[in-house]
C-alpha cells in the first residue's frame, strides 16, 4: 500500500494489526525455523506497507510494532541465551537511489553540515547470511553469539570454533574486542550440501542463508563442523580501545587480525560515488561466490557515527540499499520430472527463455506436486518468476490462473523406470518405488547394497560401481553376482589386474550366502534401516517369507505386528514388494545369492534390552563394529543420549553427548572399559 493512499483510520488500525501478526509469523518462520514461506522481497513489502501506515498514522503505532522489533527473540532451540554487551542493531532499508540520497541529506541536517558538504561513506556488499558476534578477550575467542532479538542471542561458541575463517586467537587486538559480521554459506557449498542431504534423505535447505542458519544453530557442534560455513566481518560491538578514527580504518584493523573482511569494502567521497560502487557490486553479483541482497552504506567518520546514534532498531549512520527483486514474466512451456538419487520426483518447469537480472533463465524448480497445485500451473500458462536468493529461480505467480483449462496431472509412474510413484501419507514428495532397478537411483542403491552395514563387499567402491554402470554391466544388484562372467574383460581394463579382479570376485562370492538381515537392509527399502531389517528377519526368518507377508491380504496388519515395525514401515514394505520390477529383480537376486537362515546373534546378558550410545572417535574399532558388539550383548545402539540411555561409550573428541550424559547421570565408559564389558559378558 503506497504512502498517502486514502484509507480510513479504522481500516489502517485493522490493517496494522494484521500486518503485525503476519510479519511476526514470517519472522518466526525465517529466524526460528529457517523455513521462510515468502521471498525476502515480499517480506520487505509487508514491512514497508506497515511503515508507510505508521508514518501516516503515528498515533496508531502498536506496542508490538514490527518496526520496533529486531528479528525474532531467541527460541527454545536448546542453545544457551547470552545478553549482548552492546545491542546488535539492524539497518534501515532503501530501494531507490533517491532514498540513498535522502539518507545523506538527513545526515547533513542532523550534523548541521552545509547542503553541499562531503560526507565520506563506506560501501560494501550486504551479505545474505546471519549476524554473529565474536567476542575476543585477551586475544582469545571467548564467546560467539547469534543476534537473537538484538539484546539477547544464542551462545554458538562451540559451533563457531569449527568455522575455519574465524581465528581462535588473534594478536595485537584490544583486550576486549567484539567483532560482528555475517556467517554465510557459499553458493557452491550450499548446492553440494543439499546434494548430500538429498542422498542421505536429510533436510533440504531453501537457500544458502537458511542452510547457514540451520548449520550454525545446532546443538551438536559436530554437525556444524561438517557444514562449510564462512564468515565476513562488517563491524564491531564492545571494544576496550578504539579500532581507528573511521569505519574504513577500523575494518582494516579487523582484517589485520586475520578476520575476513569483504574485498569489496570501499571508502567513497559521497553518495554519488557510493551509488557508483553499488552499481559495480550489482554487476559482479552473479559472479560472487556468495549471495548478497544489497549494498550497505555507513558514515565513515566514527565521531559522526557517535553523534548520529540510533533510532529504535537501527543506527542513523547506516543504510542498506537493497537490490530490486529480480523478476520477469514468461511462459511455462513444459514440466519435466527429474528423479533424484533417492527416488524423489522433482518437477522442473521449462520456460520460454527470459532475462532476469542479467541472467537468462529457462528452468524453474516447481518443488513438488503440491506447489504445482498451489500455483494452479498448466502448460502454456504465463508466469511471473523470480530469482530467489540468487540460486534457483522460482515461480511467484501464475498470471493465467483464471483461464479455464484442465489441471496438470502429476505423473503416477517414474519417468526413468516406469515403476509406480507414490507419496506417503502426509508427505508432499512423490517417490519412485522401483528402487532396485531405477536408473536414476542405481549408483546410490548399489553403493548402499555393497556398503559396510549391508553386504559389505570389499573392493567394490563408488568408482568401480560407476565404471561398471557405464559399461552396462550393472543395472541392478543381481548383476553384482554376474560380474564373474566379466572376469577376462575386466582384467583387460585400465586399473585392473588379475589379482585385484580375483580379489573382488572372491569378495562377492563370500557374500553369496550372507546374513539375510543385512541383505534386506541392503535392498534400501525406505524406512527399513539395519535395526528394522533385523527385527523383520527375526519375525519372518527369510526374505521370501517376508515377501509373502508383504504381498498378502493382511499385509499391513501382519507387518505392523512385528516389534519395531510401524504403519509407515509396513506401507513402505508393501509398496516395495508390490512393484513388479522389484519382484523381478529380487527373484533374480535370490537365485544368485541365497541368504543364509537368520541367526539371532544376540545373547541374554546383563546388557539385554539396554541402550548404549557411542560417541567421539573410537580408536580400536569402527562404529559399525561397536554397534554389532552391543547388539551381540542384546543391547541396542542409539544415536542420541536421553534419560533412557544406560551407557555412553565415549572416545576422544566426544562433545555434547558426553555433556548430556553427565547432566542426566548416565554411566560413561571409555573405549577400554567397553572392551572389558564385552569380554566379561562373553
Ligand atoms: S552493518 C548496526 N553491514 O544485515 C549495523 N550488516 O539488515 C548493523 N548484514 O543485522 C549491521 N551485510 O546481519 C552490516 N555489510 C554489512 C552487512 C550487514 C549483511 C546484515 C546484518 C544486519 C542486517 C541488517
What count of helical segments does DSSP give?
A: 24
In the CATH hierarchy, the architecture of the largest domain is 2-Layer Sandwich
Fraction in beta strands: 15-25%
Oligomer: single chain
The structure class reads alpha+beta
Radius of gyration from the alpha-carbon trace, in angstroms: 30 Å
At the fold tier of CATH, the topology name of the largest domain is D-amino Acid Aminotransferase, Chain A, domain 1
CATH class of the largest domain: Alpha Beta
Question: End-to-end distance, in Å?
Answer: 75 Å
Main sheet?
Answer: 5 strands, mixed
Total count of domains? 5
Bound molecules: 2-(butylsulfanyl)adenosine
Number of strands: 24
On the 0 to 100 scale, the average pLDDT is 88
Q: Can you tell me the residue ranges where pLDDT is under 50 for at least 5 consecutive residues?
A: 1-5, 70-76
Helical residue percent band: 25-40%
User: What is the 3D shape?
Assistant: globular
Strand order of the largest sheet: 2-13-10-3-9
Give a nutshell description of this structure.
The protein is 36% helix and 20% strand. It is of the alpha+beta class. Bound molecules: 2-(butylsulfanyl)adenosine.
Write a concise keyword list for the protein shown above:
682 residues, alpha+beta, Helix Hairpins, D-amino Acid Aminotransferase, Chain A, domain 1, DNA polymerase, domain 1, 5 domains, 5-stranded mixed sheet, 5-stranded antiparallel sheet, 24 strands, 36% helix, globular, disordered N terminus, binds 2-(butylsulfanyl)adenosine
Amino acid at each position: 500500500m503506497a504512502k498517502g493512499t486514502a484509507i480510513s483510520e479504522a481500516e489502517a488500525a485493522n490493517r496494522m494489526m494484521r500486518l503485525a501478526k503476519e510479519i511476526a509469523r514470517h519472522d518466526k518462520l525465517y529466524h526460528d525455523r529457517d523455513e521462510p514461506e515468502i521471498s525476502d522481497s515480499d517480506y520487505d513489502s509487508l514491512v514497508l506497507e506497515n511503515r508507510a501506515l505508521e508514518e501516516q498514522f503515528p498515533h496508531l503505532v502498536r506496542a508490538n510494532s514490527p518496526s520496533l522489533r529486531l528479528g525474532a527473540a531467541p527460541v527454545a532451540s536448546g542453545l544457551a541465551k547470552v545478553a549482548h554487551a552492546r545491542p546488535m542493531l539492524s539497518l534501515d532499508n532503501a530501494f531507490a537511489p533517491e532514498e540513498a540520497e535522502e539518507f545523506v541529506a538527513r545526515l547533513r541536517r542532523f550534523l548541521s553540515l552545509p547542503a553541499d558538504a562531503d560526507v565520506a561513506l563506506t560501501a560494501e556488499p550486504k551479505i545474505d547470511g546471519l549476524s554473529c558476534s565474536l567476542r575476543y578477550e585477551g586475544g582469545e575467542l571467548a564467546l560467539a553469539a547469534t543476534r537473537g532479538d538484538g539484546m539477547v542471542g544464542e551462545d554458538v561458541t562451540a559451533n563457531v570454533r569449527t568455522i575455519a575463517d574465524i581465528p581462535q586467537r588473534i594478536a595485537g587486538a584490544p583486550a576486549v574486542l567484539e567483532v560482528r559480521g555475517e556467517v554465510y554459506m557459499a553458493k557452491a557449498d550450499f548446492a553440494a550440501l543439499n546434494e548430500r542431504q538429498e542422498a542421505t534423505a536429510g533436510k533440504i535447505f531453501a537457500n544458502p542463508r537458511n542452510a547457514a542458519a540451520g548449520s550454525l544453530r545446532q546443538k551438536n557442534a559436530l554437525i556444524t563442523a561438517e557444514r562449510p560455513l564462512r564468515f565476513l566481518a562488517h563491524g564491531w560491538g564492545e571494544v576496550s580501545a578504539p579500532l581507528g578514527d573511521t569505519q574504513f580504518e577500523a575494518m582494516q584493523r579487523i582484517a589485520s587480525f586475520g578476520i575476513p573482511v569483504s574485498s569489496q569494502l570501499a571508502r567513497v567521497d559521497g553518495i554519488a560515488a557510493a551509488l557508483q560502487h553499488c552499481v559495480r557490486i550489482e554487476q559482479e553479483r552473479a559472479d560472487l561466490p556468495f549471495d548478497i541482497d544489497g549494498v550497505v552504506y555507513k558514515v565513515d567518520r566514527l565521531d559522526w557515527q557517535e553523534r548520529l546514534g540510533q533510532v529504535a532498531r537501527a543506527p542513523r549512520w547506516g543504510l542498506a540499499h537493497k537490490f530490486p527483486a529480480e523478476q520477469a514474466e514468461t511462459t511455462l512451456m513444459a514440466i519435466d520430472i527429474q528423479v533424484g538419487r533417492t527416488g524423489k520426483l522433482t518437477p522442473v518447469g521449462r520456460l520460454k527463455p527470459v532475462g532476469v537480472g542479467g541472467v537468462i533463465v529457462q528452468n524453474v524448480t516447481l518443488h513438488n506436486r503440491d506447489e504445482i497445485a498451489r500455483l494452479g500451473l498448466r502448460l502454456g500458462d504465463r508466469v511471473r518468476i523470480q530469482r530467489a536468493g540468487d540460486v534457483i529461480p522460482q515461480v511467484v505467480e501464475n498470471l493465467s490462473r483464471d483461464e479455464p483449462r484442465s489441471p496438470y496431472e502429476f505423473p503416477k509412474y517414474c519417468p526413468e523406470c516406469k515403476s509406480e510413484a507414490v507419496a506417503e501419507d502426509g508427505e508432499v514428495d512423490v517417490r519412485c518405488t522401483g528402487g532396485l532397478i531405477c536408473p536414476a537411483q542405481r549408483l546410490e542403491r548399489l553403493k548402499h547394497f555393497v556398503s559396510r552395514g549391508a553386504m559389505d563387499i570389499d573392493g567394490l567402491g563408488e568408482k568401480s560401481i560407476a565404471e561398471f554402470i557405464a559399461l552396462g554391466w550393472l543395472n541392478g544388484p543381481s548383476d553384482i553376482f554376474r560380474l564373474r562372467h566379466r572376469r577376462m574383460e575386466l582384467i583387460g581394463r585400465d586399473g585392473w589386474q588379475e589379482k585385484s579382479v580375483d580379489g573382488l570376485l572372491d569378495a562377492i562370492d563370500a557374500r553369496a550366502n550372507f546374513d539375510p538381515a543385512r541383505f534386506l537392509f541392503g535392498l534400501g527399502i525406505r524406512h527399513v534401516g539395519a535395526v528394522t531389517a533385523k527385527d523383520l528377519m527375526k519375525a519372518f526368518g527369510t526374505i521370501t517369507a517376508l515377501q509373502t507377508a508383504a504381498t498378502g491380504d493382511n499385509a499391513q496388519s501382519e507387518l505392523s505386528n512385528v516389534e519395531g515395525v510401524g504403519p509407515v514401515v509396513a506401507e513402505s514394505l508393501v509398496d516395495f514388494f508390490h512393484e513388479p520390477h522389484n519382484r523381478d529383480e529380487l527373484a533374480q537376486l535370490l537365485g544368485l545369492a541365497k541368504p543364509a537362515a537368520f541367526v539371532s546373534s544376540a545373547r541374554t546378558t546383563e546388557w539385554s534390552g539396554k541402550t548404549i550410545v557411542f560417541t567421539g572417535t573410537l580408536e580400536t574399532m569402527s562404529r559399525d563394529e561397536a554397534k554389532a558388539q552391543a547388539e551381540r550383548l542384546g543391547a541396542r545402539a542409539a544415536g542420541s543420549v536421553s534419560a533412557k540411555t544406560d551407557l555412553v561409550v565415549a572416545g576422544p573428541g566426544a562433545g555434547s553427548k558426553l555433556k548430556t550424559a553427565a547432566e542426566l547421570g548416565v554411566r560413561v565408559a571409555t573405549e577400554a572399559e567397553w572392551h572389558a564389558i564385552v569380554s566379561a559378558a562373553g
